[in-house]
Amino acid sequence: MDSEKYLAALDKVVKKRFPCTAYHIGGYQEAAVCIQSDDVGWMVYNGERGNRYDKIECDTILKACLELIRKLTHNIQEITSMEEELIFIITDVT
Predict the structure, then answer these.
(1) N or C terminus of the chain with fewer C-beta within 10 Å?
(2) Structure pTM?
(3) Are 34 and 23 in contact (CB under 8 A)?
(4) Which residue range forms the structural domain that includes residue 52?
(5) Which phi and psi angles does 5 have, rounded to 5°?
(6) CA 89, CA 55: separation in Å to the nearest integer?
(7) DSSP-derived secondary structure for 5-34
(8) How far is CA 56 from CA 76, 89, 91, 92, in A?
(9) d(CA 21, CA 30)
(10) pLDDT by residue (tens digit) across 31-64?
(11) How far apart are CA 77 and CA 59, in angstroms?
(12) Residue 94: its pLDDT value, please?
């Protein structure tokens, strides 16, 4: 499955709950949780003052999507709900 489907599903899930300024898909954005591909897989980090803080390296796009969700909120019910919705969208074959 290509990464575009994962990233589109992630955007759909996250934008229902957070302003678009809170996260960025595909590269760096100031004062946002960011996800982007790199040479070895994917990374998720907090963009601040031109730097990448609390960077997490992920070997799959799915792991990176889940990490972005977890960085946006610490509410376990919200995390669970968003993760379930993401998995549903990704695995929907209709």
Answers:
(1) C
(2) 0.93
(3) yes
(4) 1-93
(5) -65, -40
(6) 26
(7) HHHHHHHHHHHTTS-GGGEEESS--TTEEE
(8) 19, 24, 25, 28
(9) 9
(10) 999 999 999 999 999 999 999 999 999 999 999 9
(11) 26
(12) 61
Contacts of residue 45, defined as CB under 8 A and 6 or more positions apart, other chains included, come to: 33, 34, 52, 53, 54, 55, 56
Residue found by looking up tokens 């990464």 in the block: 3
Report which of 44, 47, 49, 46 is spatially closest to residue 67, judged by C-alpha positions.
44
pLDDT at 93: 63
Is the pLDDT at 20 greater than 80, yes or no? yes
Number of structural domains the chain divides into: 1
Give the model's pLDDT for residue 1. Answer: 57
Nearest of 28, 52, 24, 56 to residue 42 by alpha carbon: 56
